[in-house]
Amino acid sequence: MIDSGRNTILIVDDEEGILEITQEYFERKGYEVYTASNGIEAIEIIESVKIGCCFTDINMPQMDGLQLAEHIRKIDNTLPVIVMTGYPSLENTIRTLKNGVVDYLVKPVNLEQMDLSLRRTMRERGLFVENLILREEIERRARLEALNNELLSRVDELNVLNRIMEDFSGSDSTYGIFNKVVSLGMQVVKADKVNFYIHAEHVSSFIPIASTDLDESVEEGITPELAQLFLDVISDDQPCLISKNSGVIGLTNNIQSFMVVPVKIREKPFGVVTASIVVNNQIANGDNSFNTNNRVSTDKDQCVNNGYQYSPRLFSEKDIYYMNYITRKAASAIENIALYENIYDNLFSTLYAFVAALEARDSYTRKHSTRVADVAYIIGRIMGCSEEELDVLSFAGQLHDIGKIGIRDDILLKPGRLTDEEFEKIKEHPSIGADIVGKLGLWEREQDIIRHHHEYFDGSGYPDGLKGYEIPKLARILSVADAFDAMASDRAYRKKMDKGKVVAIIEGCSGTQFDPEVVTAFLNVADDVWPHDS
Where do the domains of the chain lie, and which CATH numbers do they carry? Predict the structure, then answer.
């Protein structure tokens, strides 16, 4: 806030009598009066006290009045200066105007004349100060509005970036990521069409894998010129923004703005994403609307029909920034999924190799796990299991006996009847198997099935003595499939049983060892699952 000087005046004159008279006069008028005999003294006062108006003589020693006025104008252009002189001249008058002097009085000066000049000057200065204050307030508000708009823009940008990150964090397949890129491109940069192309390097082409309306943004496939543009974008690792008049062959006539963004994974080219703004789709998609005041529209047909000025919407640098961010997050998500799938593929291969090594120790049980998984899958399908449950059954079936890798060969391969102590050791294999799978970071559901596939429906099984529906459903299914294959296969201690006996034993154990519902489903498929070489 600018201080007006609180009716404080400064009188500068080398005649002491004039200083005394004017000081006494204006103090009686209620002013606070400071006096100086030359310009240097006046400057010292001005630098220490807020002065509202300065009266100064022109001819003074050390620094005259015009030099003082010029100095005042440089340090405070709001402080009015009134010049008093006994030697008026055109030259002095012009110099005073150049130095910002607001009034020019000729000596001898009448005190009332000085008072009138002072009141007029202070009134004008008040208006001037008010204007300055108003301008400062307007400028301050403008700065605050600009800062607020910048802050809102940053907040919007962060919201968009967070939304993009959240969307990709929930993707669990590469196919889902491809379609997420297309969806986000439509929503975030307000594109009318988005295409995701994979670079098929071995055939030197780009293959569309996700799109809003598969490849309508190019005419009859990708022209060599458009393919070369894609290659240049990948090579430079920089997005490209072009208009329909850029001369790129392959863009349809209704494309107004077009961008190409590279997708790289571990610095290797993976593909490109293209986004288009189509001329007559802009209003339909809600991106812009008529401005009836300015008679401007982004829809060309409406302009022609209504006489409005055509103003097409184009992609901006921020749109490129957002689209580039989308593709980088997509690349990261694709890499993570590929790494995850590769890790688990290797892990599954390792576990299956353990099972194969285990079964290789005993020629009688070779392929037992695979057969159990197949039979469990068939029973589960008859019982209406979901695709996810069937996948879990297949996986758990393959690994259900992996815990036997911790059982000594003299027990595991013993041709005769096991002792009670040996059988207690055998009973440890479900817990060992579940522990192996658990330590490798696999899912709890599979662990539970492996752990509980030897639980009995009446509660007399192991390792936890679960009863009835306390036993996981898929473990109850696996239990029947495991027992069936054990009886229908040759073992070290006996030959396989005939089909009628096997079916009779399973049916007879319904409600004791096995879940009656699972037994019923098994009986419906017993003929289908019986070994074909019997």
Answer: 8-133 (3.40.50.2300), 174-327 (3.30.450.40), 361-529 (1.10.3210.10)
